[in-house]
Amino acid sequence: MKIRLSDFSENWAEMFQSEAQLLKTIFSDQIIIFEHFGSTSVQGMKAKPVIDMMCIVKDIEKIDLFNNKMDSLGYDVAGEWGISGRRLFRKGGDNRTYHIHFYQSDNPQIERHLIFRDYLRSHPEEAARYSRFKEEVAQRCEHTREYSAAKRGFVKEMEQQALRWYSEKSHYD
After folding, report:
1. Geometric angle at alpha carbon 153, from 38 and 56, rounded to 5°
2. Are 68 and 75 in contact (CB under 8 A)?
3. Phi and psi torsions of 141, nearest 5°
4. Residues 6+ apart with CB under 8 A from 50
5. What DSSP line would sit under the chain, residue for residue?
6. What is the pLDDT of residue 1?
7. Has residue 173 got a pLDDT over 70?
8. Which end of the chain is less enclosed by CB atoms within 10 A, N or C?
9. Residue 71 has what pLDDT?
10. Once rounded to an integer, what is the mean pLDDT over residues 117-132?
11. Is 0.85 topped by the overall pTM?
């Protein structure tokens, strides 16, 4: 898939809310909470215009029972897609609009994603640095697979900073 990088859009928060309402009608009492994460959730960040949504659920195994329903609504059912304990659904085909990540409430991936999001929200200079890096990578890479691979080291390093920030912040709260 070709890389599409966009300026921040206020519409992304509305798109998140709208999809959360739709998913609530499908999964009802399975959902504990929805979280908007990834670059589209950070004010001012450049991002692939794909809304990353986290659905924190009571029992991840029960989510598999909804695969046919999600497929009928235009979602690609991707299963764990490389992350143990996750269920991933993608919507929009080549012009993807949503990545829906389901995690059971005790999955450690939840905290990692939310700490990174909160770090970027609390450190606009770091969000700007990440945006600039993404622009540079997007100029060198044509497809999302290359783009994601080229960002991996930078993101890992920034995630480590975010975890240190969270640890220090939690220590003093």
Report:
1. 30
2. no
3. -115, 140
4. 38, 40, 92, 96, 97, 98, 99
5. -B---B---THHHHHHHHHHHHHHHHHGGGEEEEEEESGGGSTT--B-S-EEEEEEES-HHHHGGGHHHHHHTTEEEEETTTSTTEEEEEESGGG--EEEEEEETT-HHHHHHHHHHHHHHH-HHHHHHHHHHHHHHHHH-SBHHHHHHHHHHHHHHHHHHHHHHHHHHHHH-
6. 82
7. no
8. C
9. 97
10. 97
11. yes
Note the pLDDT of residue 2: 86
What is the identity of the amino acid at 127? Answer: A
65-92: pLDDT as tens digits = 999 999 999 999 999 999 999 999 999 9
Q: Which amino acid is at 37?
A: F
For β-strands 31-37 and 51-57, DSSP reports them as antiparallel
Do 166 and 118 form a contact (C-beta atoms < 8 A)? Answer: yes
Tokens of 95: 């012009």
In one-letter notation, the amino acid at residue 48 is K
Structure tokens at 107: 């999955």
